[in-house]
């Protein structure tokens, strides 16, 4: 189907923050996503100690799981509440510091140092701030990004990836005439044109 009815839909940052404040977070998975477990070998590709990026991470439980497997995890999320809930729910001590390059942004980092979560707009990040990644777990980011911002999002993601990086992407398939999103419908042809 054509994503036409959703093309001009825009969800504001305030709407996302309100979802977190009112616990309207049906997209959060308490048990982690079965597709990450199923395709973990594809993401890791036999490598250990990877830097793995979680765009629009929320309080994804997979961040702790991958950190416990010895990987370094970096996430970005506009909701500070989501990030603080992540650390609280896993009883992980953390420290908070400003991100000098981004006005108003904070970095919440586990005291063990292997989980760093940035509280800011994803579009404020760059590889000069967060570095590059060996893997990306995009479970709910591309489908949450406003359709008009997809090209900007994909271009940013490409600049954050190392040469032989793995990008695991979860999308949803449905008739966009029946649901206004998010999650937004992203046709496979568009994924190919965005990421090549």
From TrEMBL:
Its main location: cytoplasm. GO terms for cellular component: cytoplasm. It catalyses: S-adenosyl-L-methionine + a thiopurine = S-adenosyl-L-homocysteine + a thiopurine S-methylether. InterPro entries: SAM-dependent_MTases_sf, Thiopurine_S-MeTrfase, TPMT. S-adenosyl-L-methionine binds at residues 16-27, 56, 77, 121-122, 139. Keywords: Cytoplasm, Methyltransferase, S-adenosyl-L-methionine, Transferase. It comes from the Eukaryota. PANTHER family: THIOPURINE S-METHYLTRANSFERASE. This is thiopurine S-methyltransferase. It comes from Oceanites oceanicus (Wilson's storm petrel).
